[in-house]
Design brief:
single chain, mainly alpha, Growth Hormone, Chain: A
Length: about 400
């Protein structure tokens, strides 16, 4: 899982630069394709390489590890680098390298390394490309930049399972063709960024000199428990989403009787599109109510999934997928908006970084489920996810309703 890491800010350039504003979203889309393409392929890799469930979920979690490495390593540089090509082009090269390694992978370690490399590329590219969209876009407070980033992320995440699902259905090089497509898009984006980069761009760093001097401890003290409520809500939502993507194909195949995993890819694509649309819609609503409704919807979606598995109902599972799409979108928008609202200006960047670090750790929850699945069975893993996520989501919904999300007085 991945989402735009930057928040809209003032635009640095008065004139829109048409070509670069096409290639930057293409770069983001190619990176997110690398995140979602493997989803329907996991059972194929598991059977081909005789992988355990723990090994499979570790491969899935490798992407989050790469993103976190990138966040810790270069995450704070995007707003300070004068020429953002120094970050965008190496990040695209990492995306291309991850796709190449995936297309050649024939072992657990090669798959894990491919996922880590893909995550590093996405993490580095996300911040830099978002800042570039702000610098080169029109002076509208970053609204169009945020829209371009959101659409690129949604398109990349949704089209990935479609490409790999179609390759699976046609049985046409399913473990090579989708990644060759990603390599082609990443290469096109690299060439486009080089050729269309505005010659007159001064690239003044977006971070104001007086900002970001507050410590993380000061920020956490100012926000109190409200910050951790928001982080816990997004963590839970992403943990459920990560579990759907990591063990969902095997659950669909073994517990729901879905033999065509290409169809599963299309369902995941629909889920991701619906989640993206819900994010766009939820931005207009009250943030606290949005977050609360997201937590309640998350509990309902997991309850529907669990019922679908126990009663072997594909229709119930499909309805649960739609509810989960709303829950994911609402929880993300509500929690991110509230964090932006309550974070003091001096420590805003550090709090936002911690917020996303906590959320990305959720991508390792499927590893625990993989261990449970290997030990006592896949159905038990589904039940563990259900009990934990339902109780936590309902508790968070109650806590959100009783918490005041206001910025502390200076």
């Amino acid at each position: 899982m991945s989402s735009p890491l930057s928040t809209p800010g003032p635009c640095e350039s008065g004139a829109a630069h048409g070509a670069i504003l096409l290639f930057l979203p293409l770069a983001l889309m190619s990176a997110l394709l690398n995140s979602s393409v493997p989803t329907p392929l996991y059972p194929h890799y598991q059977q081909m390489l005789a992988l355990s469930d723990v090994s499979l979920t570790l491969i899935y979690g490798g992407y989050a590890a790469g993103v976190l490495i990138s966040l810790f390593g270069v995450g704070n540089l995007a707003g300070r680098v004068t020429d953002l090509r120094a970050m965008i082009l190496p990040a695209l090269l990492a995306v291309l390298g991850g796709a190449l390694l995936f297309s050649l992978a024939d072992s657990f370690w090669s798959l894990l390394l491919a996922r880590v490399l893909a995550g590093i590329g996405t993490g580095a590219l996300t911040g830099a490309a978002n800042v570039a969209l702000l610098r080169f876009g029109p002076r509208d407070g970053g609204k169009r930049a945020a829209l371009r980033a959101t659409l690129s992320f949604t398109a990349g995440l949704a089209l990935g399972p479609v490409f790999s699902g179609l390759a699976l259905q046609l049985d046409f090089y399913p473990t090579q063709l989708p990644f060759l497509l990603i390599m082609g898009l990443a290469t096109c984006a690299m060439v486009g960024v080089v050729l269309s980069w505005p010659a007159s761009a001064q690239g003044a760093p977006a971070a104001a000199h007086g900002q970001g001097k507050g410590s993380l401890g000061e920020g956490l003290k100012a926000t109190g428990v409200a910050f951790f409520i928001c982080a816990a809500a997004l963590f839970t939502a992403w943990a459920v989403a990560a579990s759907l993507l990591a063990i969902g194909p095997k659950v669909a195949n073994q517990l729901l009787g879905m033999q065509d995993l290409g169809l599963f890819g299309y369902l995941i694509a629909a889920y991701l599109v619906f989640s993206g649309l819900c994010q766009l819609w939820a931005r207009r609503l009250d943030a606290r109510h949005t977050l609360q409704s997201g937590c309640l919807a998350l509990a309902l979606s997991v309850l529907l999934f669990t019922g679908a598995v126990h009663y072997q109902s594909l229709w119930l599972a499909g309805f649960g997928l739609l509810v989960s799409g709303y829950a994911q979108g609402a929880a993300f928008v509500g929690s991110a908006t509230l964090v932006n609202r309550i974070a003091p200006s001096a420590s805003h960047a550090r709090l936002v970084s911690l917020f996303y670090v906590i959320a990305y750790v959720a991508n390792w929850v499927p590893v625990l489920l993989g261990w449970v699945s290997d030990s006592v069975g896949l159905l038990a893993a589904v039940d563990v996810l259900a009990v934990g996520s339902i109780l936590i989501s309902l508790g968070l919904a109650w806590v959100v309703s009783r918490t005041r999300f206001e910025r502390a007085a200076a």
